[in-house]
Amino acid sequence: MTPNTLQQLTDGHAKRGRALRRALAAHASRLGRKAEVHQDRQGWITLEAPANGVAAHEALGLHDAWLGPTKLVCGPRGIRQRIEFALPRDESADALGLLDQSEARQEKSLRRAVFRQASEMLAHPADRNTHNLIAAPTIRAWVQAEGHAVATDEAGNLRLGIAYAGFDGQMRIECGPQRLRMALALGAWTHLAPAIESAMLELATEANARTRLVRTVWLEGGPRRRCEAQVDLTGVPWVADEQSCFEPAARHMIQMGLAGLALTAQRLGRELAVLADPANRDLAEALNELAARTPWWESHELCI
Hints:
304 residues; four-stranded antiparallel β-sheet; 8 helices; 10 strands
């Protein structure tokens, strides 16, 4: 790379960074005074807003009924709604001005569409009047391209195995006209001791906040407890006619969702299995004591 090219890249990134910060500030103002929009160094764009009227103990239980990528995150500022997404792009080409006018218009259109829909989802997270715009055969081809063997169950959902040392499960991908959700069952238990359940719920709450795109679901019914990891992209306008940039964005988000769920299986899936064993009650009690002294958000950054 020549010094002149390097200078072009540096100037281009600085100019684009200033434009993006202005755009994010404008979107935040449209979401409301208490909403926030920001982008990190990896390119992830996050929208957040306060979650009014939601108690900490019920946050993870609400996820299963919600369509779309909104999740509830417990942290130092209480419970907040969060939506995350990342748009694929060639940063060097953009900084050098190599994107043609058509590509630039497509990218702006995609960003506007995503922000518009994300704003609606933050305002109405339980709205079920949403749609999936990506056909099942397309999703199947993308998943297979990532090296997964895919089967179809009787309900038309895609199935693929996820196996690691200490964890063996199946991922379900629901890709009908009204839902696009990747879900991975992490376990089901009955009659958990209170100390064990508290420690498991603490880890599930932390994983929900740390892992990009993935939301954790904790469901209770009598003596039964069930935990599931989900990536729900229902209603996100990734694909649209005559706007080719939407398809790469959709594929990119599917790839990120698969990676996030795989990481959740490796970590939270195995950790919950260990804690659920009554022989490890001492470990559960130690985790509860640690959580009481040091909240999870005082340590390291997001996993994905």
